[in-house]
């Protein structure tokens, strides 16, 4: 019997795969990364909406109290203040929950930042289902669709806390004046970034080679894509894994290169299937492709409320489900 069809063996295999990969807290890494950025860049300043402790920014207080601005629970004001700081030559890093950074303050992101060509780093924590217990007010599954539709906006979803640090530095050093939306998680996530792995905004990272199916993912779903590739290997299926951390500007070359040698493609994202990573990939392939493409994400409905791991499994945002979908595509 196939491993995918043997519940007990599958459960043990998945547990061992996860246990072999360390976990790190997203919020702790974010706070440490912002601290390092402020040490490196005298022009950098952090702006938050009453989330100093929830985002790890409280560690800035002893050394950088004069470069940490807490505007209170006022995300629109937070983004507007950040735009003003950018207009004065500073490098503001905005930090709020993704639901409010991208929805409540979307006008300020669009007009104050993007329209005026101002470099503001908009960090949205608790994206996707990582604030699952917060329910529909705090779950965020439409942010990529919204932010990538804004002209002049860069959209990046790091795969893990390590890549978060790389992405923040890359956003700060990105030439030009485009604002950058960093889509971040909330709690502990598995680390999948190889030591010394290069990071460049707009350049995908190939984490596994394969010529049967390409698994495309970003954020925490990269871990699930790697797990799916491991499970498919036991089925005799070679899966390529593409960490497409930058949704905009998207790495067209990486997608088209994969399309040239695989028999199917599966895009998995902790986001609505409408307008997110899967839609962006299909836009690259819009001139036609000779293989099936399936998008795995959150369907057009409100997810339930609950812990993140249980929600991911219930909605099919997990390695075993991705592997089954890919296997069935190739049959």
From TrEMBL:
Protein name, entry field: Transketolase family protein
Cofactor field: thiamine diphosphate
Alphabetical list of PANTHER family matching this protein: PYRUVATE DEHYDROGENASE E1 COMPONENT, TRANSKETOLASE-LIKE PYRIMIDINE-BINDING DOMAIN-CONTAINING PROTEIN
Domain Transketolase-like pyrimidine-binding: 24-191
Organism the protein comes from: Methylobacterium oryzihabitans
InterPro entries referenced in this protein's UniProt entry, alphabetically: PDH/Transketolase, THDP-binding, Transketo_C/PFOR_II, Transketolase-like_Pyr-bd, Transketolase_C
Family: Belongs to the transketolase family.
Pfam families, per the entry: Transket_pyr, Transketolase_C
